[in-house]
Every structure is written in structure tokens, then in C-alpha cells.
Amino acid sequence: MQKLAILMGVDASDNDAQNRVSILRNELSRLGWTEGNNLESRLVWSSGRADNAVRLAQELVAWTPNVILAQNTISAQACFDHAKGIPVVFVSVFDAIGSGFVKSLAVPGTHMTGFINHSYQLAAKWIEFARALSPRSHRMHLVWSPRTLPVGERFYQSAFAEAARAFGYEPVAWPLESADELRSLIDGLRSETDNLAVMADPFTTVNRQTIIARVADNRIVTVYPWLYFVKDGGLLSYGPDQNDMFKRSAAYLDRILRSQPVSNLPVQAPVAFDLGLNLTTARAMGIEVPPLLLAHATQIVE
Questions:
Q1: DSSP 63-93
Q2: Which helix (H) or strand (E) holds 170?
Q3: Is the predicted pLDDT of residue 158 greater than 90, yes or no?
Q4: Are 166 and 87 in the same domain?
Q5: In terms of domains, do 166 and 180 share one?
Q6: 3-class secondary structure, 116
Q7: Given this model, what pLDDT does residue 139 score?
Q8: How many CB atoms lie within 10 A of CB 153?
């Protein structure tokens, strides 16, 4: 009997995350792994908190699994620090090299490999879409939490600020520590001058209802990293298809469970992307979506 541990970086009440776990389990079943037959698994949820991720990683290591799947950067960090002797497949990690999880994408060189969720080129796409919806704004804000996404500052400095200036924006960084700070930030923005981009970060995921409601009240054009923000009422999202990454991760888990060394498995970049638009939200905010942007949307909510 092989043992698989799954450390999710969000809350168990997150229906989209539950769906991704189901996609993973279904693909493992297709590859020949049946719960209770040749596979035993444990699933735990950190609720977007780094301290929870550390505690849960330590508990999973004590269970001695054959492999751990770690969703998002805080889960991967906990496994990097506390599961040195166990292969780890990460999913939806922002900067695997910058975080120190691997030495290179082609040859990881550690006990970890997996699927990154972003490239630095995404910054330009987020800002391009914001400009299309808000042509007269002149400040572009980026929000994340250093506690749950330590590489956020690197993304801002290396990609976001330059891309914002290229589109005529003044870039503004907002590394936040609490939901109160998040509410204060949004309430201080003005629809005539300010746009907002939200990093793919457990902090922003856990607080997404607060962000979506607050920016709607203040009519702030906001770009999100994941499609489920748009399904929950956000205006626009652009980012990798997380369902696809979880499905693809099953093949890596399968190979490790069949004794293939993790060092032989290169880190994979996203291959499928979603552009989501919520037209109900656009109408409520008085925004006319350009036809070209509408034509490129992969998901439209009305």
C-alpha cells in the first residue's frame, strides 16, 4: 500500500479547491491508484496560514508518506523545510527557483518538483487588461501578503513596476499583513485614478469575498489571478487553469509512487490559461467591455 499526503494551502470550505482535489483523485484512479486498494491518502487544509502549514507538514512527515502533494507556496515552503527525505510535488507555486525549492526548472536538484502557476510575463497581461477597462486611470496597485507570498516583492520589482510604467501607470506596492489593512487600502482608492491587481496568494484567496465586495462598492477596476474570483463576482481574471495543473500533477505522483526519482521530473510551466469576465459586475460598475477583450474571454459570467 502506497501512501499519499495532500497539503492544501486554503480552507476546506473552498468549493473550488475541493473540486481540484476531486480532479486529482479521479486522474489517479484512471492511472490505476484506488483508495483502500493500493493507495492510502491523507488530506489536510492549512486555511491560508503559514503556521498551520508548518504544523500540518510536520504531522504528515510523521505519517511517513511515499510522496506529498503541496498546493501553493506556503505549503511548499513548509514541506521544503520539514520533509527533506520525502518527495514533494508542488502545485500552484509562484517562483520555485526564487523560493529555493529547486535549483533549476529542467533539473530540480532537490526533493521537490511540480507545477508553477505564474511567469513574470503575466504582469503585463494584467495591466493590459486593466488599461482596456479603465483607460483614464493612472495608478496601478499590487496587493499581496509577505507572510504567505514572500516572493511578492520580487515580482513587483522585477516585472510589475516596469510593466505598469510601460502602460502609463504609476506602480504602487501594497504588501499587507491583515484583512483590516486590506479594507483600508481599498477604501482609500478612487475609481477615477486607481486600478488594482491581486496576486495569487493564500491571503488574497482567503479574503477574496472582502476584496470583491469592497472594490465593487468603490468601483475600482480590479484584475484577479484566478477564474474563481470572477465566478464569485470579481470583474476580470487572467491566469493559469488550476484544474489542469492538478490533473497533470497526478502523472507526477503516479511516477513517484512507482519509484521514479523526483530528480528526473522537470518543473512544469502552465499550458492552459483562463481569461474570465463578469459582465454583471461590469454593468453594475458602469464599465463597457471592449469587443476585442470580450472575444478573447474563455469564461463569461452573466
A1: T--SEEEEESHHHHHHHHHH-TTS-EEEEEE
A2: strand 170-175
A3: no
A4: no
A5: yes
A6: strand
A7: 97
A8: 14
Query: Which residue, 206, 144, 152, 154, is CA-closest to 177?
Result: 144
Taking the C-alpha atoms of residue 219 and residue 285, their distance in angstroms, rounded to an integer, is 6
- Name residue, grid cell 504602487: 172
> Are residues 102 and 207 both part of a single domain?
no
pLDDT digits (tens, 9 = 90+) for 71-86: 999 999 999 999 988 9
The answer to whether the CB of 196 falls within 8 A of the CB of 223 is yes
Q: How far apart are CA 238 and CA 210, in angstroms?
A: 19
Q: Is-contact 200 225, C-beta < 8 A?
A: yes
* Residue the block writes with cell 493507495: 39
Is the pLDDT at 47 greater than 90? The verdict is yes
**Are 12 and 18 in contact, with CB atoms under 8 Å apart?**
yes
The predicted-structure confidence for 170-218, as pLDDT tens digits, reads as follows: 999 999 999 999 999 999 999 999 999 999 888 999 899 999 999 999 9
227 CB contacts (<8 Å, ≥6 apart)? 237, 239, 241, 242, 274, 276, 299
Confidence at residue 264, expressed as pLDDT on a 0 to 100 scale: 85
**Cα–Cα distance measured from residue 51 to residue 29, given in angstroms and rounded to the nearest whole number:** 32
Number of domains into which the chain is organized: 2
Give me the domain span that covers residue 83. Answer: 2-118+242-272
How far is CA 22 from each of CA 36, 107, 165, 251, rounded to the nearest angstrom?
A: 16, 29, 41, 15
Average pLDDT, the chain: 94
